């Protein structure tokens, strides 16, 4: 693989040289060939190696599930989870090309599912870094002595003085006897942020090869949550301890024996094993300059030429920043200077001295070595996006691997359909157009290389519907080639020479190709600018696809024709012919067609209204999520492979509406034995009952065992939470009692069984009351597992006598097995991935794209009616297809329809939204081809006649049939062969493409004659035309 990559890179280099040679000597053909070769090898290099660059979606490869909880202390009364999810989507997938779903769970939790190839640690950081930028004056001993004394007092850390707060200065991480190699240090007890320590030093203590004690500082290259990667080998034979001093701003405390007025106020607090946090006191001034006043952030260098982040304020921010610095200018003849701390998420990044007033801009420095380039990019991204409306707890409640969401059989069907659909169009083009078809196929292959290379470069994710979109690109991309080839045919029939056929074919088709592509480009650009992340990804792919299609279908194809003609390799163009010149009257029955269309659309809208919310897939409605665990001892489960288990769960859970299944495993587990079942059913109790009935003994029951009791002494009591000195100390009520270790066979989504659930089982079954134990609620407590301990373990502490306690524990174990609630690790409602505000914004973006279509066609055709006619045809197609989707619910109930026509009760999901957006592009493209021919036939004639419209439609009929057929054939193959993963997407396009072809002829074109073809001369011409029929 690596060798092939080098060959591609070398070929790219040589191609660029060849293009430059052609430019230097003025040889256009050499230049063109060099440009084509350069783009080809650049596209191949962007996707090489495919195993690394082409990232599959969750539906095909699975990934990782993360569940986070919003920090309750930071939530305001008007907190909106949908706003937070929208902000997070923009962070993790700003272009909308990675297809990362984020769902609301309950009121303050969210779930994110990452594709398998996504950098989980990087996404965790994007999710949990709030991005809050602040500018604060450091407290000092000269002006803030009283505040300093209070802040350093017993309660000063949690309750600093008014107008002051503690900012994080850094931390000291230490550990003993870590696991190590020559270039790595691992401490599983830690939970560091990814790459927090990159670029700083770790000090290692250990023995060298001679057995001598050594202290060695080594630079850190990068770090994960519990592993340090060193830039160089440490050279030690053994390591007994390590120390990391993290201090981005390099601010140091002054000498306590001789404090100076400008010394910062710093305190240290141990916040966990091997972790000391350093805090610094800052003043919350009345200017309150924060990141909301930033205009932009950019990469720059500090005065030491180290990488840094520059920023520029908006006008209001510049005024406030100028006031802040003006109020803190040097004193005592520059002997005393204030320090301005730049805080990011309450961490001091730098604190330069204020020497003069500063207004418009500044820089954020990265300590002694500056920022790493990737860190600069990350900070700019965070600052440009702005701070999050709320913060998430940095430790996820759940982190699990998930298998492909589509079944093995569904994936196999989809892939098979993709291959067939991608092959059938090239074969048809070669058979029908002969040599010209071969040229078109070459252009198509190059188009795919460039498009996939571009998507790989943007780190796009390829889901099954996304791959279907690429297959559809092949069907639709031939449109430009067909336009050119049909123009060549017309030139040939006029008796033109081969050179004239090639030249005029491309030249005369160019206007139509340009108009159709620019219209789609402009509408896609509006979708990308205005739309949501779900729409942005589609729009961006459309923009790139259109640009590459222009390059391949027009430029590349023409160069190939020129080469073959100049070399004498072709003498004439031969191609099959669909029909002789047609002379159909398409316009006369227009009013009947419009009436039928109106009736069908009204019926479709009625069907849409009747179905209501039931017409929407789980992406929009949300539903209920239940997590189950299969019983390994059940004969129906025991012998099944991972994929077979997924199919087993899908089949059993299929009794619920709109079921999707995700197979789960934790950590290094070898098999998928736990499953998320999602359904649009909103009633958790109904879901619970249905799952129990469907799975029966195949669900694993909770089993509990307990070991011998151990005495509890006062010293073993859990340490009480820190309290004020004035409060009474907490007394352990179970001192001198007994404790038991409880072991369970299963865990829940947050890593352990919740003690409260076990407690509720005890009281729900009257376990203690049956034996007449007095005050049962005060006789025991259950403690969950601590960090680093076995999550399947709990500690029960009690003052009951051992014989009584053990009897009750046996009763509890039996009760747990029969507790229906504990058969499910998790059962909860969740929101859709598309919020209601998001739907509204997507609709606004779509309408805005239609307005830009109207404006452009108005400009190009010198009449508003052309734009309105094209958009009305688009609206017709969208509403007709929407009605077909809605009506499928009733049509599917007709005997034989589901079996023979494969129609089922389709629902609108995100892939179907992409189908509707594709349909818009197809419909407009088809309409513009006829409109351009109308303009050509009309010339400078002031009036539009029925004959002109009929002639335009008849002259472009072959092109309309051929391009519509190739695109429709692709989606039809996907519909009949693609399985459930592509069925709804393909159905919408099968119907939509038929409607799009119909509306171009019977809706868009007739509108022109009705609205601008009513001049008396035009009417007379129409009567003469009708008389010839």
Task: Supply database-style keywords.
Alpha-Beta Plaits, single chain, eight-stranded antiparallel β-sheet, alpha+beta, twelve-stranded antiparallel β-sheet, 1029 residues, 17% strand, 6 domains
Helicity level, as a percent range?
A: 40-55%
Mean pLDDT: 84
> DSSP strand (E) fraction?
15-25%
Count the E strands: 30
Total number of distinct structural domains: 6
In the CATH hierarchy, the architecture of the largest domain is: Up-down Bundle
Radius of gyration: 35 Å
Structural class by secondary-structure content? alpha+beta
Terminal-residue CA separation: 66 Å
Uncertain runs? 719-729
The CATH superfamily of the largest domain appears as Multidrug efflux transporter AcrB transmembrane domain
CATH class of the largest domain: Mainly Alpha
The major sheet is characterized as: 12 strands, antiparallel
Count the DSSP helices. Answer: 29
User: Any idea what the shape is?
Assistant: globular
CATH topology of the largest domain: Multidrug efflux transporter AcrB transmembrane fold
């Amino acid at each position: 693989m690596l060798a092939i990559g080098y060959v591609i890179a070398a070929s790219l280099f040589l191609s660029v040289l060849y293009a430059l040679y052609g430019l230097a000597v003025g040889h256009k053909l050499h230049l063109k060939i060099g440009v084509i070769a350069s783009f080809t090898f650049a596209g191949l290099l962007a996707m090489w190696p495919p195993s690394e660059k082409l990232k599959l979606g969750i539906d095909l490869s699975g990934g990782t599930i993360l569940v986070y909880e919003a920090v309750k202390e930071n939530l305001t009364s008007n907190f909106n989870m949908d706003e937070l999810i929208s902000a997070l989507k923009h962070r993790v997938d700003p272009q909308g090309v990675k297809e990362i779903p984020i769902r609301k769970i309950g009121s303050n939790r969210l779930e994110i599912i990452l594709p398998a190839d996504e950098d989980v640690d990087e996404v965790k950081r994007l999710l949990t870094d709030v991005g809050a930028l602040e500018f604060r004056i450091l407290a000092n001993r000269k002006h803030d002595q009283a505040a300093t004394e209070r802040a350093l007092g017993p309660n000063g850390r949690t309750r600093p003085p008014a107008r002051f707060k503690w900012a994080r200065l850094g931390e000291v991480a230490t550990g003993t006897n870590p696991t190590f190699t020559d270039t790595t240090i691992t401490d599983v007890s830690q939970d560091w942020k990814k790459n927090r320590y990159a670029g700083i030093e770790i000090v290692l203590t250990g023995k060298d090869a001679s057995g001598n004690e050594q202290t060695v500082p080594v630079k850190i290259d990068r770090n994960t949550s519990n592993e340090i990667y060193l830039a160089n080998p440490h050279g030690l034979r053994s390591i007994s301890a390590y120390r990391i001093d993290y201090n981005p701003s390099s601010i140091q405390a002054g000498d306590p024996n001789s404090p100076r007025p400008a010394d910062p106020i710093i305190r240290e607090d141990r916040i966990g094993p091997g972790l000391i946090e350093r805090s610094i006191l800052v003043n919350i001034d009345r200017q309150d300059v924060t990141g909301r006043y930033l205009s932009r952030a950019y990469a720059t260098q500090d005065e030491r030429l180290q990488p840094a982040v520059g920023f520029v304020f908006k006008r209001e921010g510049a005024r406030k920043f100028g006031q802040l610095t003006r109020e803190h200018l040097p004193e005592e003849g520059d002997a005393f200077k204030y320090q301005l701390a730049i805080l990011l998420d309450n961490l001091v990044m730098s604190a330069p001295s204020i020497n003069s007033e500063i207004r418009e801009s500044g820089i954020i420095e990265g300590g002694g070595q500056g920022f790493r380039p990737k860190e600069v990019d990350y900070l700019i991204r965070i600052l440009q996006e702005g701070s999050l409306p709320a913060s998430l707890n940095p430790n996820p409640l759940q982190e699990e691997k998930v298998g492909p969401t589509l079944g093995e059989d569904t994936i196999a069907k989809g892939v098979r359909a993709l291959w067939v659909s991608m092959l059938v169009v090239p074969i048809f083009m070669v058979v029908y157009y002969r040599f010209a078809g071969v040229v078109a196929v070459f252009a198509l292959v190059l188009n795919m290389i460039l498009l996939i290379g571009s998507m790989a470069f943007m780190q796009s994710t390829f889901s099954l519907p996304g791959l279907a979109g690429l297959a559809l690109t092949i069907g639709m991309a031939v449109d430009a080639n067909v336009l050119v080839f049909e123009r060549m045919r017309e030139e040939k029939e006029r008796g033109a020479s081969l050179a004239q056929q090639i030249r005029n074919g491309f030249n005369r088709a160019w206007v139509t190709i340009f108009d159709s592509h620019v219209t789609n480009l402009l509408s896609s650009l509006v979708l990308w600018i205005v739309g949501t992340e779900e729409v942005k990804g589609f729009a961006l792919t459309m923009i790139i696809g259109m640009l590459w299609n222009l390059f391949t279908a027009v430029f590349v194809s023409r160069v190939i024709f020129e080469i073959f003609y100049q070399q004498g390799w072709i003498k004439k163009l031969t191609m099959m012919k669909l029909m002789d010149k047609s002379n159909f009257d398409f316009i006369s029955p227009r009013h009947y067609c419009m009436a039928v269309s109106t009736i069908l659309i009204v019926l479709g809208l009625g069907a849409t209204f009747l179905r209501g919310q039931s017409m929407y897939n789980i992406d929009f409605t949300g539903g209920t999520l239940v997590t189950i665990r299969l019983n390994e001892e059940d004969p129906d489960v025991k012998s099944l492979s991972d994929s077979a288990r997924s199919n087993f769960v899908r089949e059993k859970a299929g009794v619920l509406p709109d079921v999707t299944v995700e197979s789960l495993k934790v950590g290094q587990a070898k098999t998928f034995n736990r499953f998320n079942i999602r359904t649009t059913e909103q009633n958790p109790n109904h879901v619970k009952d249905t799952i129990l009935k469907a799975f029966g003994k195949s669900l694993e029951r909770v089993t509990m065992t307990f070991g011998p009791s151990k005495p509890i002494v006062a010293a073993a009591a859990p340490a009480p939470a820190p309290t004020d000195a004035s409060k009474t100390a907490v007394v352990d009520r179970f001192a001198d009692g007994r404790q038991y270790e409880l072991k369970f066979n299963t865990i829940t989504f947050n890593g352990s069984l919740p003690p409260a659930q076990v407690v509720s089982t005890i009281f729900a079954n009257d376990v203690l009351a049956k034996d007449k134990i007095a005050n049962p609620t005060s006789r025991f407590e259950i403690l969950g597992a601590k960090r680093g301990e076995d999550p399947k373990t709990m500690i029960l502490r009690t003052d009951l006598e051992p014989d009584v306690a053990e009897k009750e524990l046996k009763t509890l174990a039996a009760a747990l097995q029969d507790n229906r609630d504990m058969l499910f690790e998790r059962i909860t409602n969740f929101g859709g991935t598309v919020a209601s505000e998001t739907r509204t914004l997507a609709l606004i973006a779509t309408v805005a794209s239609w307005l830009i279509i109207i404006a452009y066609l108005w400009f190009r055709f010198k009449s508003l009616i052309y734009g309105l006619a094209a958009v009305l045809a688009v609206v017709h197609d969208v509403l007709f297809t929407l009605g077909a989707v809605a009506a499928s619910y009733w049509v599917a109930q007709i005997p034989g329809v589901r079996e023979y026509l494969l129609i089922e009760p389709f629902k609108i999901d995100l892939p179907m939204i992409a189908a509707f957006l594709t349909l818009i592009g197809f419909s407009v493209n088809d309409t513009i081809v006829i409109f351009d021919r109308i303009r050509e036939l009309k010339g400078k004639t002031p009036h539009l006649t029925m004959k002109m419209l009929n002639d335009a439609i008849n002259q472009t009929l072959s092109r309309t049939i051929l391009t519509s057929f190739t695109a429709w054939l692709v989606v039809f193959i996907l519909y009949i062969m693609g399985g459930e993963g592509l069925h709804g997407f393909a159905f919408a396009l099968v119907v939509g493409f038929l409607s799009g072809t119909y509306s171009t002829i019977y809706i868009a074109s007739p509108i022109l004659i009705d609205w601008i073809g009513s001049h008396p001369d035009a009417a007379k011409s129409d009567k003469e035309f009708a008389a010839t029929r």
